[in-house]
Amino acid sequence: MSAVIACRDLSFGYGAESLLKDVNVSIPAGDFVTVVGPNGSGKTTLLKLFLGLLKPARGGVEIFGVSPRRARRRVGYVPQHPRLDPLFPVSAVDVALMGRLGRTPLLGGWRRDDREAALSALDEVGLSDRAGDHFAALSGGQKQRVLIARALAGGPELLLLDEPTAGLDAHIEEGFYRLLEELNKRLTIVMVSHDLGFVSHFVKSVLCVGREVVVHPTSEVTGEVIADLYGGDVRLVRHDHRCSEEGHRHD
After folding, report:
1. Which domain holds residue 239?
2. Which of 22, 30, 170, 198 shows the greatest Cβ crowding within 10 Å of its Cβ?
């Protein structure tokens, strides 16, 4: 299958500190990948490199065979900390419409197809009946779904999410991942998550970020080591490659 994301000898650091070094990974179309690793290992940085918000110190990354900046219209992004003033009087559909910025003329306001795309995105995340509700009045899980609708309104083929379930209750979190599982039928998804034991029931691959960055398939694994790490039998990672000690520790 063709690679949606391809990193070749990619390295990046802040100042003199090297964070990511010699990253060579390929993510095919239709994959659902969770990115895991210790705090400060570079998970969010990797997403920003995929988005073209940061430039590699060495090597490169291609999205759909071109530079991240050229591919930006084909990518939807749900950040970890969205910059939305909770007191600003915007509705759910207003937030979804923000995903159309850059696709509509600067003058003249939103077009009919912009509103149709925003309403369709809200319907896809199960919130068409809350389109006119004040964003601040929604629950945490509903807000996250609206933010996904904002990303979907732009018509992406690749969806990047940075810890989208942080702070959500477990039963809401499961419904959220089932939504992503459904979206994965038509989108390639890459998501940073702390909870590998939970999300591995839904994702197809795990990208370990440590001293090395390696993609592994998920599979069912049981044993004393997993019980020690997670307190019981869970789905984890089949390590076809040997990860560094950091790569085995998950947030």
Report:
1. 1-64+157-251
2. 198
